[in-house]
Amino acid sequence: MNHQKLILVTNDDGIYAPGLKALVAIARKHGEVVVIAPNTPQSGMGHAITMTQPLRLHKIQAFDGIESYECSGTPVDCVKLAKNVLLKERNIDLCISGINHGSNASINIIYSGTMSAAMEASLENIPSIGFSLLDYSFDADFDASSDWISQIIGHVLHKGIRLSKLLNVNIPRLGRKEIKGIRVCRQAEGNWVEEFKEGKDPRNETYYWLTGQFVCQDDGEDTDLFALSNGYISVVPSGHDLTIHHAIVENKDFENLLP
Amino acid sequence: MNHQKLILVTNDDGIYAPGLKALVAIARKHGEVVVIAPNTPQSGMGHAITMTQPLRLHKIQAFDGIESYECSGTPVDCVKLAKNVLLKERNIDLCISGINHGSNASINIIYSGTMSAAMEASLENIPSIGFSLLDYSFDADFDASSDWISQIIGHVLHKGIRLSKLLNVNIPRLGRKEIKGIRVCRQAEGNWVEEFKEGKDPRNETYYWLTGQFVCQDDGEDTDLFALSNGYISVVPSGHDLTIHHAIVENKDFENLLP
Predict the structure, then answer these.
(1) CB within 8 Å: B259 and A124
(2) Which residue from A22, A129, A194, B171 could staple onto A167, CB 3.0 to 4.6 Å apart?
(3) Are A58 and A70 in contact, with CB atoms under 8 Å apart?
(4) Is it the case that residue B2 has pLDDT exceeding 60?
(5) Do B84 and A164 lie within an 8 Å CB cutoff?
(6) What residues have CB less than 8 Å from A221, skipping those under 6 apart?
(7) Strand, coil or helix: what is A123?
(8) Looking at beta carbons, which residues of chain B come within 8 Å of A250?
(9) Domain extents for chain B?
(10) Quick count: other Cβ atoms within 10 Å of Cβ B203?
(11) What angle (nearest 5°) sits at the alpha carbon of residue A208, between those of residues A205 and A214?
(12) Minimal CA–CA distance to A44: which of A101, A82, A94?
């Protein structure tokens, strides 16, 4: 028998999300799977970590024959606990996060707990992939893309990712035969145009509840949003360097300031 | 009288943090200041947003003569509420976040609520600056750098930031006369080597508490960490595109995968 690959699986929708179940079912074909996921939904947690509170970790029976844990923290906390406590003595070959219920294309990568968990693993030098399906519903159809996801996982396990440790993979909401293929692309420019729904609670106190609409500001044909809207799975090689390198020399005049 | 600039001030250490008070005192010399900050410390919240809960916003008297609000949400929520509710009808000339009690240089930008608040404003096309002092203590000395911070704010208000909307500014923990100047640089490669302190709570249940040590993996002399360790204030022009652009063509073989 070959060396079994060790695959860490996590998400941000919580340990009981159907998207996680679907990802575990795919991952187990590729090696030994260990699952650690938040015990509550953690969408929109970004790269949050828990510093001022203790974390709880419980072994549970969530997936038949798969070592699984639920954690009281954020998605990033889950990855840190996996790397530094649960799997401290072992080499993790791959971390996969998802399948997220909803898009993490374009600027959504910034807000996404799914992608932050994968990014945290990539910071630990573990090849990592975040998977997201463009369907926010709880009972989204994760079957249609399962063979594609399996191919991507296999490719990363055996060929690796070049010049990056992190892939942001988004999947269009299409049937099995409608997905046209894969496009490797860049993160589109876009943002959220927000509104807050203002209301009164039962005690007559004002509250504000976030809502909003995503707006694409990018007409490039090399973006994740373009690929998705044309029926392709988007794969964006991603990193963690937020520097705008070509802006450094353009802003050198700040060095002339004196107090 | 000139057109008064409108400056939004926020932070992640909470409305009562001394770093915020110091930043407000500097900002008010440059225009009309509106403060909105979390009602509890929110360090390490990254780009978290609150989607499943209503947010509360209360006008308070925190700073003499300054319009101020405390918010139940994250730093990013604060900026969204400022842009879409409090200052909906107005043009915000600048958003400043901080002064953070502790470093946000290198990879810390990813975890930082201070920087995420500033980044959120930059996504709304508002020039934004996050300020952090390399001193984690509550009673850190924010006076030593106040004239430098004032210079940077004035420069951004009058000259803008080229090819970027966001500056990550970190300040060494030095006396007024020891700070050598400003360096415009890139985010250093570094990460946190984590440990979890394992313990037992009063009910004899196991907990894990995050701790760790930052490790610089970058010996470049053009980085924020290099500038800081040599007595300079670091200024990193930053953005929100996580794509590793040169990795796109190198990973085109993913496009050959078939289910």
Answers:
(1) no
(2) A129
(3) yes
(4) no
(5) no
(6) none
(7) helix
(8) 162-163, 237
(9) 6-187+221-256
(10) 5
(11) 170
(12) A101
CA distances from B184 to A63, A67, B221, B232 (A): 50, 48, 11, 10
Q: Do B240 and A107 touch (CB under 8 A)?
A: yes
**Per-residue model confidence as pLDDT tens digits over B199-228:** 999 999 999 999 999 999 999 999 999 999
Choose among A111, A83, A107, A95: nearest CA to A11. Answer: A95
The burial of B141, by beta-carbon neighbours within 10 Å (0-12 exposed, 13-18 middle, 19 or more buried), is given as middle
Contact A51, B212 (CB under 8 A): no
| Rounded CA separation B17/B99 (Å) | 9
Report the relative pairing of strands A232-238 and A166-171 from DSSP bridges: antiparallel
pLDDT tens digits for range A90-112: 999 999 999 999 999 999 999 99
Whether B37 and B11 have beta carbons less than 8 Å apart is answered as yes
Contact A235 B241 (CB under 8 A): no
Report yes or no: B37 and B31 within 8 Å, Cβ to Cβ.
no
pLDDT of A42-90, one tens digit each?
Answer: 888 888 999 989 999 999 999 999 999 999 999 999 999 999 999 999 9
The CA distance from B96 to B181, in Å, is 20
Indicate which of A39, A40, A49, A85 best probes the interface with B, i.e. most B CBs within 10 Å of its own CB: A49
Kindly report the pTM of this predicted structure: 0.95
Q: Looking at the complex, report in whole angstroms how far the Cα of residue B65 sits from the nearest Cα belonging to chain A.
A: 24
Give the nearest chain A residue to B195 (CA atoms). A84
Contacts of B170 (CB under 8 A, 6+ apart): B103, B104, B105, B132, B133, B134, B224, B228, B233, B234
- pLDDT value of residue B247: 98
CATH topology (fold) of A6-188+221-256:
Stationary-phase Survival Protein Sure Homolog; Chain: A, (3.40.1210)
Query: Which residue type is seen at B156?
Result: V
The single-letter code of the amino acid at A210 is L
Q: What is the pLDDT of residue A2?
A: 53
Q: Tell me which H or E stretch contains B200.
A: strand B190-200
CATH value of B6-187+221-256 in 3.40.1210.10, 3.60.15.10, 3.10.180.10, 3.40.50.2000: 3.40.1210.10
Read off φ and ψ for residue A98, nearest 5 degrees.
130, -150
